[in-house]
Amino acid sequence: MTPDKGAPQQLSLGVSLRDDATFDNFFLPEADPNRQVVMALRAFAAGDSADPAVYLWGEAGSGVSHLLQSVCQNAEAAGRSFQYLPLAELLPMEPSVILDGLEELELVCIDDLHLLEGHPRWQTAMFHLYNRVKDGGGQLLLGARRSPRGLDIELADLRSRLQWGLVFQLQPLSDSDKLAALQNRSRLRGFDLPEDVALYILHRAPRHTGALFACLEELDRASLMAKRKITIPFVKQVLDI
């Protein structure tokens, strides 16, 4: 892979960014500690940060993958070369096929880093990629469900590298914030979600925000096809909850 650093890197390997994974629709309550994290990532995406590496972690559904893809969306808008790599999809492949040549890009975003546990070949390949990106003047954004110290990484050199850069933890939303996030996301999709319907979904669907937003997307599609409003009976029918 030898892309021109002056042009945005097109996604390959069947990997694509979600259209709705943007900074603008990442829900941030007032006085949310995640606001500082988002500000830092916006600067990182634009190339306005001197830090060569950022490690972002948080529990499932906290928004790590959303923000990694948001960084890529902004990097593309800024004309930077980049690649987004979700290890959950790519781990079965040969690491050298995936990682070789990425140091020629301005930004490399690697998601699901916790999945490196128990995969020594990938750990070794990731260690060498980290060094190549740093030596080449590029930037590396890593996402995981645990902190660098909390990962069970056998390769000591990689464990050390992962603790070199900036480390941010995403704080999960409270139930009241999830309720507000559901209603905010529905407005962004062009419809209003009554509070009683949002509460019904929140109390019966999987609790993390990714699953909640997936339910909302499914309901939106179903309501458009059926030309019906989203009510509690409609939610029961479509989601079987």
TrEMBL record:
Pfam families per UniProt: Bac_DnaA (PF00308), Hda_lid (PF22688)
InterPro entries noted in UniProt: Chromosome_initiator_DnaA-like (IPR020591), DnaA_dom (IPR013317), Hda (IPR017788), Hda_lid (IPR055199), P-loop_NTPase (IPR027417)
Keywords, in A-Z order: DNA replication
Domain Chromosomal replication initiator protein DnaA ATPAse: 103-168
Domain Hda lid as annotated: residue spans: 175-239
The organism's place on the tree of life at top rank: Bacteria
Protein family membership: Belongs to the DnaA family.
PANTHER family listed in its UniProt record: CHROMOSOMAL REPLICATION INITIATOR PROTEIN DNAA (PTHR30050), DNAA REGULATORY INACTIVATOR HDA (PTHR30050:SF5)
Name listed for the protein in its UniProt record: DnaA regulatory inactivator Hda
